[in-house]
Amino acid sequence: MECTIKWVDGMTFLAETGTGHVVAMDGAPEAGGRNLAPRPMEMMLAGAGGCTAFDVVLILQRGRHDVRNCEVKLMAERAETDPKVFTRITFHFTVTGKGLKRETVERAVHLSAEKYCSASIMLAKTAEMVHEVTIVDVE
After folding, report:
1. CA 12, CA 31: separation in Å to the nearest integer?
2. For the chain, what is the largest distance between any 2 Cα atoms, rounded to a whole number of angstroms?
3. Are residues 13 and 51 in the same domain?
4. Which of 10, 56, 119, 120 is spaced 20 to 30 A from 45 at the CA atom?
5. How many CA atoms lie within 13 A of 85 on its CB side?
6. What's the pTM?
7. Cα–Cα distance for residue pair 69/97, rounded to 1 Å
8. Residue 132's domain spans which residues?
9. 97 and 29: one domain?
10. Domain check: are 31 and 52 in the same one?
11. Is 64 found in the same domain as 28?
12. For 35-82, how does the pLDDT look when each residue is reduced to its tens digit (9 = 90+)?
């Protein structure tokens, strides 16, 4: 896996992934940025959310569960002094499907958190991880 970061101007940077995708990042105005794109730490949080959502959906689909939607809201707290690492991250999953059992969804979340999601497992080295689940049943 590779990524190249290119400085555009001010505090705006473009990240080009090894698969050819481009993502912009920018700093806060007080840091010389223009607030044109997400901050790098927001990108890390989004990466952890995407990684775990991918896992949960895949685990449920492989178990032949009727999952229709998965949304993960992440709320992070950071240290007050440098390095301002994440100290606590709450993952709130809202999983929609037909006839989903709470224990099945919670098992998928647990497997992602403990075994499969490299991003959140890496962040767990500095942050307390909290996982919450809401299940929405549809016909």
Report:
1. 11
2. 51
3. no
4. 10
5. 9
6. 0.93
7. 7
8. 40-137
9. no
10. no
11. no
12. 999 999 999 999 999 999 999 999 999 999 999 999 999 999 999 999
| CATH of residue 64 | 3.30.300.20
Q: Does residue 129 contact residue 72 with C-beta atoms inside 8 Å?
A: no
Domain total of the chain:
2
Pair (54, 117) in one structural domain: yes
**pLDDT, tens only, 12-47:** 999 999 999 999 999 999 999 999 999 999 999 999
Residues in the chain: 139
Residue with tokens 């473009």: 14
Q: How far apart are CA 125 and CA 25, in angstroms?
A: 24
Q: Which two three-digit tokens encode residue 44?
A: 């890390």
Q: Which among 43, 52, 53, 35 has a CA at the least distance from the CA of 15?
A: 43
**DSSP SS3 for 11:** coil
